[in-house]
Amino acid sequence: MLSRFFSMNSxxxxxxxxxxxxxxxxxxxxxxxxxxxQGSLASENMDDxxxxxxxRYADYPPYCSTPEQMTQRYIPKLYIxxxxxxxxxxxxxxxxxxxxxxxxxxxxETNGRCWDGYWEDExxxxxxxxxxxxxxxxxxxxxxxxxxxxxxxxxxVSRGGTPMFLFDLVFDALKPPLSNTxxxxxxxxxxxxxxxxxxxxxxxxxxxxxxFDPKSEESGRSDSNPHETMTLFSLxxxxxxxxxxxxWDPHYLYVRSGDSQATMMSGxxxxxxxxxxxxxxxxxxxxxxxxxxxxxxxxxxxxxxxILGGFQKNCPKLDGLRRESFSAKEYKEFYDSIESQQxxxxxxxxxxxxxxxxxxxxxxxxxxxxxxxxxxxxxxDKNTWFNRIATYHTxxxxxxxxxxxxxxxxxxxxxxxxxxxxxxxxxxAGKNATRSGRHPPAKLAxxxxxxxxxxxxxxxxxxNVWDGLVWPPYAxxxxxxxxxxxxxxxxxxxxxxxxxxxxxxxxxxxxxxxPGCQLDLELCDIKFLMERxxxxxxxxxxxxxxxxxxxxxxxxxxxxxxxxxxxxxxxLAIATGAFAGATIVIYKLTGSxxxxxxxxxxxxxxxxxQHSGVSHQIAMEGPADASPAxxxxxxxxxxx
Length: 640
Known about the structure:
Keywords: Hydrolase, Membrane, Transmembrane, Transmembrane helix. InterPro entries: His_Pase_clade-2, His_PPase_superfam, Histidine_acid_phosphatase. This is Acid phosphatase. The chain crosses the membrane at residues 565-589. With 640 residues, the chain is an alpha/beta fold. It has three domains: 3-86 and 138-299, no CATH class; 316-536, Phosphoglycerate mutase-like (Rossmann fold); 546-631, no CATH class. The chain contains 21 helices and 13 strands. The chain has helices at 21-53, 67-70, 108-111, 122-125, 140-147, 149-152, 193-210, 214-218, 236-239, 261-285, 316-326, 329-336, 338-350, 357-365, 385-429, 451-460, 526-533, 546-561, 564-590, 601-625, 628-631, and strands at 3-5, 89-99, 133-136, 167-169, 211-212, 233-234, 253-257, 298-299, 444-449, 477-485, 499-505, 508-509, 524-525. Strands 2, 7, 8, 9, 10, 11, 12 and 13 form an eight-stranded mixed beta sheet that branches. Helix 10 (261-285) links the parallel strand 7 and strand 8. Helix 11 (316-326) crosses helix 15 (385-429), helix 13 (338-350) crosses helix 15 (385-429) and helix 19 packs across helix 20 (601-625). The longest helix is centred in the middle third of the chain and has 45 residues, at 385-429. It is globular. It starts with a strand and ends in a 9-residue tail after the last helix.
């Protein structure tokens, strides 16, 4: 078994042999020094890089999440208007869903050609990365601990075993004319230093909102929240060196991630920004070496089976809902508009593109690479081709997600809502177990996912919550806070339940956009969130859709007709059908069949009916299937 670490600041949980204290302490001090130096260098280098990261263009789309854009996302203090009697409140739970940080492009097999010359140009087609992957096997002691972990009921910290090597993976083995997919040392979709910086900032954003650290006042830091009603973690005992559980204990923290380099590493870096000072304190108090660094369990699943980004494949009902949305009057008005026609004509005439053009555009501009001259640049409120193409792609993709009260998104993201409610419901009812009973509820649940995760969650909460006009930027955060209302003398006409929620997206409070919630109030009765989410929060989704099966049948028949064998079969079928039809007509007119056919009367009649039915099906459903909505190669710009 191998443990994977995705941060250049990660350390393994291998421990030095027990009894060799001096060697262990030296190694520990050395690793701690490396950790601190690398953290310092990373910070200094990022400050230097930040000055050069975004220079080519005058403006950058919100998608890029530049340092200036990230500063606009801090979580606002809870605002309760004067005269609004909510009484005493206490924060009991926070769910945070994040999009991965800035990453590399996805490669030609996924994104296509992008545009002529993209992969041949060194500026756009070669990707080299500074952040690498470390591999470490588990220590002997950790293996023993894992064997009895169920009985221990927690995540142990390894303290024994023999020293192990860390493998530092560098994707530089292939030499010209051979190369990696991205023609350099980067992996497809790998987190970049820009993304590292974004998630570090996200961790600090969470820290400043939800963590109280008395040492921050002593040291002059202003990175923790001093307001009791918004404190999710208090580190008073931890700061005094008392024997208390660390804030990353599974009773406090639940981490869920997609099984990709960008999502795993994004979650890991966010954790460093959130608990960096406590991690340093933990290291100073421990007497042993590498194994004293804490481990955090990350819950994940196979990419092909995971629901963190919603169901995107193998669900016929989703196909049917998407098709239904493309038949809607609003979509046809968008698709047939002069603007949409001009954008499609421009892309067809000026670009060599595939369905991944949107990803190509954004990964290019957000890494300060060269865009084709005919694109123009991104300019705020300007009608450049870059803006127009991005707007078209976004609208084309998000329309099905929001159509008909977000039926597509509700079905797609329902299983993830079931996971999220595992931690929200106990904080409402005061229970000690989740719906599934698999994991203890946590104070803070972090889901490191994708843009599709955030889009579908937002869409499922109500048509006014998200307008679908702006694609979720890198490192976006969607936050659901659960607040206990402790005062029995409060105004119960505002919140009848004993719990309320606050919804925040990239620093903007969206609570009053959820159906049932009062305008201009940041807290809303939890019952309105549950009324919206509980009916769709199911782990087993019914994906069966007969209309999709019939449509697939038509497509298969069309595919058959595109082959020589299929054409000959069709001619034979038509001839047989015509002959059988003529025979039936003769029978109707004369009351008898030709002598040679009398023995096979029933068999021939059944065949005539079946062929007639197939022809009718193709004639009736073919044109609908070939509508412009389905011919457009940009139906799905890709979700990553």
